[in-house]
Amino acid sequence: MTATGPATGDDAPALRQRAVDALLSARERTATLTSCVDDPDLLAQHSPLMSPLVWDLAHIGNQEELWLLRAVGGREALRPDIDKVYDAFEHPRVERPSLPLLPPDEARGYVADVRARVLDVLESTPLHGSPLVDSGFAFGMIAQHEQQHDETMLITHQLRRGPAALSAPPPPPAPADAAALPAEVLVPGGPFTMGTSTEPWALDNERPGHTRDVPGFFIDTVPVSNGAYVRFIEDGGYDDPRWWAPEGWAYIREHALAAPLFWRREGNAWLRRRFGVVEPVPAEEPVLHVSWYEADAYARWAGRRLPTEAEWEKAARHDPATGRSRRYPWGDADPSPERANLGQRHLQPAPVGSYPEGASPLGVRQLMGDVWEWTAGDFLPYPGFAAFPYREYSQVFFGSSYKVLRGGCFAVGTVACRGTFRNWDHPVRRQIFSGFRTARDAAPEAA
């Protein structure tokens, strides 16, 4: 579905079906993540960085009620008494276990009741007439919100101690031609369209589309692998302040960091804990659970740098043959299992070099899915940015406290992943499914 404007009588049924499918897909995943553990696990806070799973569950329902039942449907509030409990800006995560949370069974009943009413609203609401409902925006926004919380809950599962709770799907297939790939790809200099003014479910920080002139640069064909990152570690990367931003050096010294989160060394082998299972670190997978400071230090050690956000998006979207920016590296078609590792289909990244059908026009691979990729810059608004439909989604986070991640990861729902999608977090964060690739300037004659 590539609709770019308000629904007409001809396309409204397709948009409604798209919204239904997105909402149901998100809810199926939410049920998987909350039904695989018992009630004490749902109520527990497994890390001060994360909410109890049962908070996320009821928060999903509360946001759906606020936006789709009340704002779009004009319905009377079902549970106004819990609005403040599930307001993410009212209570930091560390405080949420002490709130009067809905018990698991009540939370499940609440989200189910809200959803049944929302589907009635969707069936009867014209998908035009205001920015909130044009092309089903509000329904797409809420489907994306739920998938984002599903990713958050998957992070909580990774932080959770104890035996594995999630059933393990098969690992992603290995690429046949990885060894033959070039190390880097030249992205020629020149203008391209960054962001979007036409993607119907794009969120406010992706807008508006605008022209950026980007000098030529080289970018890694694939994300940095575990094997490559081990070489950084074994070369004393965590012990040499030359490679680190001052704040990053202070942070790793204070917290005695010497490897990615969830890694440990036993003899000559590196092991990792992944969703309750301890296993050898696979050398061919993209490195995961590294902070921006670690990514930046590796890039410096390698004689390179992190790509800027504009460079990353140009590598992912710009088609030199036509001069246009695509929705995805492979084109405008929605993601599929052959193109990208998304949607919790696998519980790990695919080996570097995977998904040749998802490559960009210049041959860069795995720009969508597998691991979120840190970029060099701060999270800032685009020229002409306007907060919509509320300031707290993006605007309150703009500034130097947050770095931008692009491309999604294996835990991202397809509805919440596209070439313009922007994620952000503090540069110290490592519990997220974050990796990176590196870049370098091109000489004038190459560019």
Structural class of the secondary structure composition?
Answer: alpha+beta
CATH architecture of the largest domain: Alpha-Beta Complex
- Poorly predicted runs of 5 or more residues: 1-5
- Give the mean pLDDT: 96
Number of strands: 12
**Gyration radius, in Å:** 22 Å
**What fold name stands as the CATH topology of the largest domain?**
paralog of FGE (formylglycine-generating enzyme)
Domain unit count: 2
* Name of the CATH superfamily of the largest domain: paralog of FGE (formylglycine-generating enzyme)
The DSSP helix count reads 9
* Beta-strand proportion: 5-15%
Shape estimate = globular
The level-1 CATH class of the largest domain = Alpha Beta
Helical content (DSSP H or I, runs of 4+): 25-40%
Describe the largest sheet.
4 strands, mixed
Note the gap between the termini. Answer: 35 Å
Order of the strands making up the biggest sheet = 10-9-8-11
Helix-strand pattern = HHHHHEEEEHHEEEHHEEEEE
Spell out the blueprint of helices and strands.
Layout: H1 12-35, H2 39-43, H3 53-72, H4 104-124, H5 137-159, E1 184-187, E2 190-194, E3 210-214, E4 217-220, H6 226-234, H7 246-254, E5 263-266, E6 269-274, E7 277-280, H8 292-301, H9 309-317, E8 372-379, E9 399-406, E10 422-425, E11 434-435, E12 439-441
Parallel strand pairs: 8-11
Antiparallel strand pairs: 1-4, 2-3, 4-12, 5-6, 6-7, 8-9, 9-10
Helix pairs in contact: 1-5, 3-4, 3-5
